[in-house]
């Protein structure tokens, strides 16, 4: 998989199969994963630390993940990892991923 930055909050994921997905940080705590204009997955985060303390990087927890379209398990896992990494980059924070969310996104 190759990651191409589009903007600070948007990236394209190019897979060897020719499939392309776009990941986009949306709203305050959400990342959408799209194939063309169709949403294929959505990840939601919640803040675990105060966002007002500028001396400490924020800490988030992956709180919800939904997959709305069938996609190969490997691509889902790659897209999930890339979406989490993009959110961390965009927020300059770190993310905790509970075990049940790892299974939902095929990360485990």
Explain this structure to me?
The protein has helices spanning 73-91, 99-104; strands at 2-7, 10-14, 20-26, 30-35, 38-47, 59-67, 94-96. With 108 residues, the chain is α+β, with helices and mostly antiparallel strands. It has a seven-stranded mixed beta sheet with strand order 1-2-3-4-5-6-7, with helices on one face. The chain is built from two helices and seven strands. The longest helix is centred in the C-terminal third of the chain and has 19 residues, at 73-91. It is globular, with a radius of gyration of 14 Å. The protein starts with a strand and ends with a helix.
Protein structure class: alpha+beta
Number of helices: 2
The percent range for helix content is 10-25%
Sheet with the most strands?
7 strands, mixed
Number of strands: 7
Distance between the termini: 18 Å
- Unreliable sequence segments: none
Globular, elongated, flat, extended or rod-shaped: what is the shape? Answer: globular
What Rg, in angstroms, do the CA atoms define? 14 Å
Taken in chain order, the helices and strands follow as EEEEEEHEH
Q: What is the arithmetic mean of pLDDT?
A: 90
Task: Indicate the proportion of strand residues.
Answer: 35-45%
Strand order of the largest sheet: 1-2-3-4-5-6-7
